[in-house]
Amino acid sequence: MAANVYVQTPLTEYQIYIKNSYDELAFAIQTTNLCGYTAVIITDEIVDRLYTFSIRELLLRIFTNVYAAVIPAGETNKNHETLIALYHKLQEFHADRQTVIFALGGGVVGDVAGFCASTYMRGIPYVQLPTTLLACVDSSVGGKTGVDLGNSKNIIGAFYQPQFVYINTSAIQSLPPEQFSAGMGEVIKTALIRDAELYEYIRDNREAIRNREETPLSTVIARTCRIKAKIVTADEKETGVRAILNFGHTFGHSLESLSGFGISHGHSVMHGCRAAMYLSKLLGYDIKDHYLSDLTELLEFFGLSRLSSEYPPDLLYDKMFEDKKTKNGELNFVLITDIGFAQIYKNPTKKAVFDAIQYMMDYR
Ligand code: GLY
């Protein structure tokens, strides 16, 4: 199994355990001194059926009361209604400041449960138990929590770090193909911005990774988490380098939002990575022609499908201004200068952005 990964921020530090079962979860809880009275598992209706029973049994060895609060699945439920319902549940369970929340699920569960933990009684401890690949390699790490407002992604939220993250890689085995594929989008994104060797590793081991063989799978998870942990350690609040994790996200969020979340976050980011690489080339970086075709081929290998609807470029462009990276009405993009190297590009011309949007939309 891969070695654990460590995150350190100015106010806290925590482990990302990478295991292939939940056998060491109790140890992780005890090591973190979380032996309280009440634990609340927050999960969604799909993950609930798979894991709540066994996690609850495990937590009952440590906590006197273990409750579960189940939220509806899907990005359209990542909103304040779900959040308010959770606060009521916590009150019903007599949750206090020592109560520990266990966010068991994918990115939506992690974001909502984390934000709930950050605000209930001005902050109670929580643990991330990600069950999707995307949550393992991205959303569970780094303390970004929040909810959407209408179609605007993560517009209400907080940076609030978990007590620890516990990844059980065997959970990835039961993921539906489209969710595995969405997670690979974030893995490939991370390789593109920071790790050319990882990008090569993914290309060379694509079959084994897609077959979810244990060693290559835990290798890409650990390596991606390590990069993310390093970036978060350097810049917890995204005042600098952390922004590069948003490669492909300005295009991607815009597409995701305009599709009414019909295109998942992971797949929107995959489309966004193609557009962002194209924009990098347009703006003069040394992006070889084959980089774009190689990336498209790799994303397709991991399940990216062509866009089935047409979204007007001007609406996609306007939507970008709702992005949190917009500063003083100017769009900022994360671009790559080569595979494994990223930087922020401020205020590119509207024409260049439109051309990149068009490139993304032509993939139909
Ligand atoms: N998902 C990007 C970040 O955590 O900063």
Average pLDDT taken over every residue = 95
How big is the Rg? 20 Å
Q: Shape, please?
A: globular
> Which molecules other than protein and nucleic acid are bound?
glycine
| Percent in strands | 15-25%
Q: Pairing-aware structural class of the strands and helices?
A: alpha/beta
Task: Give the terminus-to-terminus CA distance.
Answer: 40 Å
* Largest sheet: spatial strand order: 4-3-5-6
Topology order in helix (H) and strand (E) letters: EEHEHEHEHEHEEEHHHHHHHHEEH
Q: How many distinct helices? A: 14
- Uncertain runs are none
Helix content: 40-55%
Please give a structural write-up:
By secondary structure, the protein is an alpha/beta fold. The protein is built from 14 helices and eleven strands. It has helices spanning 25-31, 45-59, 80-92, 107-119, 133-139, 177-194, 196-204, 206-210, 214-234, 249-258, 265-282, 289-301, 313-320, 350-361; strands at 5-8, 13-19, 38-44, 65-71, 100-105, 126-130, 144-149, 152-159, 165-168, 332-338, 341-346. It has a four-stranded parallel sheet, with helices on both faces. A three-stranded mixed sheet has the order 1-2-9, with helices on one face. A hairpin with a 2-residue loop joins strand 7 (144-149) and strand 8. Helix 11 packs antiparallel against helix 12. It is globular. The structure holds glycine. The site of glycine has 6 residues, from loops.
Features:
364 residues; globular; single chain; four-stranded parallel β-sheet; alpha/beta; binds glycine
Write the layout of secondary structure elements.
Layout: E1 5-8, E2 13-19, H1 25-31, E3 38-44, H2 45-59, E4 65-71, H3 80-92, E5 100-105, H4 107-119, E6 126-130, H5 133-139, E7 144-149, E8 152-159, E9 165-168, H6 177-194, H7 196-204, H8 206-210, H9 214-234, H10 249-258, H11 265-282, H12 289-301, H13 313-320, E10 332-338, E11 341-346, H14 350-361
Parallel strand pairs: 2-9, 3-4, 3-5, 5-6
Antiparallel strand pairs: 1-2, 7-8, 10-11
